[in-house]
Amino acid sequence: MLKNIETIPEYRVLLMDLLGELKPVVEPRTGAMLTPQGFIFISSPRSITPFHFDPEHNILLQLRGTKVMNVWPAGDERFAHRIEHERYHIGGHRNLPWDEAFRGGEQQVPLGPGDAVLMPVMAPHFVANGDAPSISLSITWRSEWSYREAEAHAANALLRRIGLDPAMPPRWPSYAWAKTVGWRIARKLRLVS
Question: How would residue 173 be classed by pLDDT, with cut points 50, 70 and 90?
Answer without folding.
Answer: low
